[in-house]
Amino acid sequence: MKIHEFQAKETLKKYGVPVQDGYAIKELSELDKALSSLKAAGINQFVVKSQIHAGGRGKGKIYNADNRAELVLEGGVKFTKDENKVREYAEKMLGNILVTHQTGPEGKKVKTLYITEGLDYKKELYVGILLDRAVSKNVIMASTEGGVEIEKVAEETPEKILKVWIDPAIGFQPFQARQLAFGLGLKGTAFKNFIPFIMKLYNAYEETDASLLEINPLVITNDDRIIALDAKMNFDDNALYRHPEIAAYRDLDEEDPLEIEASKYNLNYIKLDGNVGCMVNGAGLAMATMDIIKLAGGEPANFLDVGGGANKETVANGFKIILSDPNVKAILINIFGGIVRCDRVAQGVIDAVKEVNVTIPVVVRLEGTNAYIAQDMLKKSGLNFEVASSLKEAAEKVTAVIG
Ligand code: ADP
Ligand code: MG
């Protein structure tokens, strides 16, 4: 699960990580209060930050939500010393569409703004923590090339990214924190401040069951404090039950409506751009099915894993979700009857097709226990199924009907 920058900062603050404070607002009417609170703290330069679940906001563009051709503002993060400008930026961002290199051309609607202090600083750094699956250890990455696209640094000058791997048995060691600080070329007070910063940051990552924690940029202020200016946190969905306060941060506005619907039925659904709807049991088989559809010249419209125990309800719900995608022109059902028997799945498919009133071609491939009975049931159902006996045949049939 992803959360917004202001929520990530709220979380990090609980773990003692120095972050830049601010006020999240959803309405323009809340702006004055945010501004006067900042001014009361002696702050006289401000940053208005669009809150969307995507990065690259600083270099993004704001378009009018009612007229997508109209460019309203260059940049989804704006620095100013002028209070009137704060208001102008807030008006231009709130309710409009922010397009960044991470959102795709459709962009994302800005529904929340974060109003913060505009900081003066002498250096921008990068720090990221995530799980390195290749070695089954968390890795902390740091770079002096903060603020810019770290993907570019990783590609063009990988030597500029330092990495330390954390042994899960002994945890993050102070010498490793010093290794990073030396590597970043820090000295004196900045060096001293970096050590507790990174130790606390790692602790926050671990304690919250985060799957990614990225600070880009991390800044060294003119008086050598280390502060997180931006914060991105993703969490392991399977551990969210342990963190109700983080689960409560979920912002459904940022998620695909069909994916939200699927999650209600415990279906693992990811929407894609093609036109062949797929219903499969098991994530591995679902991946293989998508691959073979592509091999046959088609484009999958989704990933859908209905789980090991596919029954009539899951099949019916899966159908409804696949059919809600207007791009879907045909459906391929590929179920392996291991735990579940194929004849039961076939009955589920027949009932669901009758109930949901499916009008597009459906190709079914059932393999495993009682597969031959299932094929017979589908053929005799009087419904318009294309039955396939191998995965290859199924993929060829479904791409052929689309043409
Ligand atoms: P994104 O990564 O989505 O572009 P950031 O929060 O990193 O958003 O902001 C983009 C850039 O804006 C930063 O790299 C920094 O240069 C500048 N910036 C962000 N917040 C502040 C701030 N509080 N004070 C000064 N500059 C800021
Ligand atoms: Mg950033």
Automatic annotation (TrEMBL):
Family annotation (InterPro entries): ATP-grasp_succ-CoA_synth-type, ATP_grasp_subdomain_1, Succ-CoA_synthase_bsu_CS, SUCC_ACL_C, Succ_CoA_ligase-like_bsu, Succinyl-CoA_synth-like
Residues noted as binding ATP in the record, renumbered to the chain: K49, G56, R57, G58, L119, E124
PANTHER family, A to Z: SUCCINATE--COA LIGASE [GDP-FORMING] SUBUNIT BETA, MITOCHONDRIAL, SUCCINYL-COA SYNTHETASE BETA CHAIN
Keywords, in A-Z order: ATP-binding, Ligase, Magnesium, Metal-binding, Nucleotide-binding, Tricarboxylic acid cycle
One annotated GO molecular function: magnesium ion binding
Subunit field text: Heterotetramer of two alpha and two beta subunits.
Record-linked Gene3D superfamilies: ATP-grasp fold, A domain, ATP-grasp fold, B domain, Succinyl-CoA synthetase domains
Family of the protein in this entry: Belongs to the succinate/malate CoA ligase beta subunit family.
Binding site for Mg(2+): N216, D230
Cofactor: binding comment: Binds 1 Mg(2+) ion per subunit.
A single BP term in Gene Ontology: tricarboxylic acid cycle
Catalytic reaction(s) noted: succinate + ATP + CoA = succinyl-CoA + ADP + phosphate; GTP + succinate + CoA = succinyl-CoA + GDP + phosphate
Cofactor: Mg(2+)
EC code(s) of this entry: 6.2.1.5
Residues involved in substrate binding: N281, G338, I339, V340
Annotated function: Succinyl-CoA synthetase functions in the citric acid cycle (TCA), coupling the hydrolysis of succinyl-CoA to the synthesis of either ATP or GTP and thus represents the only step of substrate-level phosphorylation in the TCA. The beta subunit provides nucleotide specificity of the enzyme and binds the substrate succinate, while the binding sites for coenzyme A and phosphate are found in the alpha subunit.
Protein name, UniProt field: Succinate--CoA ligase [ADP-forming] subunit beta
Organism of provenance: Melioribacter roseus (strain DSM 23840 / JCM 17771 / VKM B-2668 / P3M-2)
Residue stretches making up the ATP-citrate synthase/succinyl-CoA ligase C-terminal domain: 279-398
Taxonomic classification: Bacteria, Pseudomonadati, Ignavibacteriota, Ignavibacteria, Ignavibacteriales
ATP-grasp fold succinyl-CoA synthetase-type domain sequence ranges: 2-220
